[in-house]
Amino acid sequence: xxxxxxxxHKTVPIFIPHMGCPHRCVFCDQCAISGxxxxxxxxxxxxxxxxxxxxxxxxxxxxxYFGGSFTAIDRSLMLALLRLAQTYVDAGQVSGIxxxxxxxxxxxxVLDALTPFTVSAIExxxxxxxxxxxxxxxxxxxxxxxxxxxxxxxSRGYTLVGQMMLGLPASDADKEMATAREICDLxxxxxxIYPTVVFDGTALAAMMRAGSYTPIDNAEAARRCxxxxxxxxxxxxxxxxxxxxxxxxxxxxxVVGGANHPALGELCYGALFxxxxxALLDGCVSTEGRVACFDIPRGKQSQALGQRRTNVRALIxxxxxxxxxxxxxxxxxxxxxxxxxx
Length: 342
Ligand code: SF4
Hints:
The protein has two domains: 9-262, TIM Barrel, CATH 3.20.20; 283-341, no CATH class. Helix content is 38%, strand content 21%. The protein has twelve helices and twelve strands. Helix 3 (75-90) links the parallel strand 2 (60-66) and strand 3. The longest helix has 19 residues, at 264-282. Bound molecules: iron/sulfur cluster (SF4). Residues 18, 21, 24-25, 28, 30, 68-69, 102, 125 line the site of iron/sulfur cluster.
């Protein structure tokens, strides 16, 4: 079973931009996201070797084929890439192979073909479990197909990672929460959450310019993401990432809208801490002029205070407290808090 997270866990990402994709989803530009152009199989071995040479000897490493629909690419190419990665598993240099793919590309036949390989996780680009959102994004599959794909993956014993998006066309906070809940219910062990970024040249950029789509900004992404993070914590489902990886490409002129902050995950956790702090203060009889002292988990001070102390300012303004103090505490985990009012 994949460990999925942890300081020793490292991924060697091999990008296969748009390979296997039957068409282009309205929001997607994998070349812009990954910063990689055309795929060249003859370079893959060298890419793996170079990446492995930079990793600590005790790192737990997975080779990951990302950026396309891995199980929908030409079968002989898929098998060649799996065989190549498997040689590193067999040599003890790598613990497993993971890849991302589409829900309509994980038939029983595809899963049979994976059997000889050490597949440590299958990342499914689900994006939404709402048929209206899937249609508006021209995903080309239904929520029912996504459910079936999750069940097939889990029933074969593979670690399922769900990838979902926030702020897609026709979506809203309720649909996103329902999507997250369903992905957890379907047995995902971890999630990646991607607030929508609008890339120039995509159908989504054209929709935005025509006025038929309004992207969400960083603050709205954090507001919508916070309750999903709480759900994952409650359900013990790991969070691998919020937002696209910060890269030069993401700060370039290719990005024309959407939630695109280099520390989006921190913003989202900041919003969750604020909501939890507000809930505790709502339960107090009187807060005016008093000091709110929060015990927080160790290492979570910047998230609890909020970026540039925005949470502190919001609490002082809303509850009239004279001061907000935080104290790191070893007995608390995740986003647990304790409040003392003095
Ligand atoms: S979202 Fe996934 S399936 Fe759609 S175009 Fe991008 S890589 Fe392909």
